[in-house]
């Protein structure tokens, strides 16, 4: 299954290589109606690993005809799935979780190879969190209750959660399996059938998941179609046959999603990113203890998943009285981040997801320097050996500047931290909220009252207090301002975003109203 | 760099020959197209290329200029924090992730940027056409 390097760390063999835990076919089909279906027009697109920029498989370059086939399958399945008992739906969701867990290593290596994220993250976070997400919604489904209210002595209203029907879900490239789980689990829990479009650069790991759960989920309940967003994403989002659309990605496509939903008069959920502030008050340095160490790591978490996280804490706001001492510790920690083969368990940061992401990051560092930012560390591609030399690696980077710079205002989606200072609580809050977005934020202080005030005053959907980058099921996730509309990850995602509310109003009286 | 259709001497947006060629090809295939500068997650910071009728435009959409007749828009909130930079529409590797039309096989439109000099900013402010509509 693996080899061990001189450093003692285990290294997985790449998918397709002898000894790899993952088998790769040269070509995949779409997963429609429980079957592997070749694209109607017979066209395929390549899938590269960002670790070495080499193609390792091909997936359908689907067209709207393929979306129609998937919608046919979903339509055919929706009645039976919608009437499936809560017990059975919960059992199937739990079974999906079990299968994911039983194949953690295989899925982790597949995810790492397709996306570039280090395997220690996929093993410890992406795959276990995906499994847990299915379990969470299995529990919510099994425990789902409606309400009944006695309007008067002989009149009762019953509130039922009913399925929406068929939903369309568009998944981003940064957490291909976990983001799919975030969308898929509540959709299935609600009794809906889904047509999923994975990201163009990471279409493969969800197909590997479909190989595992193909006979766990009834045919047509889960359908996966790969291909370009402008073609099949649009065909799915504009279809009159879907009852809801969910999307994670950039703002203009998010706006199109909402526009198309408006044209069809259906609901949508959008998660469109952020520019999350991570705020460090002076008292974090009051003692040299475990909490200070945690706060330092909290700043360095901007490099988690190579910065390709919607909630990347990419703006560090540090109280000026501790700036020099605190940043010295942080830069020392950043300088020790190990980059390399993402299949090596000792690797802490892998390559960016694609050439275009790498180019964008380099372009932003260039803009930051033009704007007068000071480069504190990184700012270039690392020199790696062998085939990794062709990978899309970029060094963890820190730019010091001010909040009006574009590197402080726009999501770079890479390991680039923009750092600035503040004088007091009021200025910290002003800078934190001086952004178009409002998805995440972090507050670090030993003062509980201060943490609470900041947490309530920051205009963001999630404020981590003395922690960051935790995504447990059960904690609502979603944006304020331009970061999107809707909430994922908690019970109401099932009851509000993936269910209709039926109110059945019943009279148990024989008496006429007496009006006519 | 391309002309900016007779706007201010220094345009707020311009395009490389590769981008102009890709836009010309798209126009032949699909009719009129627009570019809209995106923001946010994943593919954010890229210009999304759409058939002209695809996106419903509103009062908050700022027309930055046009490149060879193709209008380039940005959200007014984003414009407020980007306006000290010139946007240069170019073509890069890869498939677009969002709903953008590709700029050719395995190619997409990308935005490169340049910070305006103080003189250029003054000239833009002084020009009747310096402030976008």
**Strand numbers in spatial order across the main sheet of chain A:** 16-17-18-15-14-20-21
End-to-end Cα distance of chain A, whole Å, is: 80 Å
> What Rg of chain A do the Cα atoms give?
24 Å
Helix content of chain A: 25-40%
Number of strands of chain B: 7
Could you say which overall geometry of chain B the principal axes of the C-alpha atoms support?
globular
What is the strand arrangement across the widest sheet of chain B? 3-2-5-4
Question: Radius of gyration of chain B, rounded?
Answer: 14 Å
| Helix segment tally of chain A | 15
- Count helical runs of chain B: 3
Mean pLDDT of chain A: 97
Helicity range of chain B:
10-25%
**Sequence stretches where pLDDT stays below 50 over 5 or more residues of chain A:** none
What's the story with the biggest beta sheet of chain B? 4 strands, mixed
* Percentage beta strand of chain B: 25-35%
Largest interface: A-B, 50 and 41 residues
Separation, N- and C-terminal Cα atoms of chain B: 22 Å
| Proportion of residues in extended strands of chain A | 15-25%
**How many strands, what sense, and barrel or not for the largest sheet of chain A?**
7 strands, mixed
The oligomerization state is heterodimer
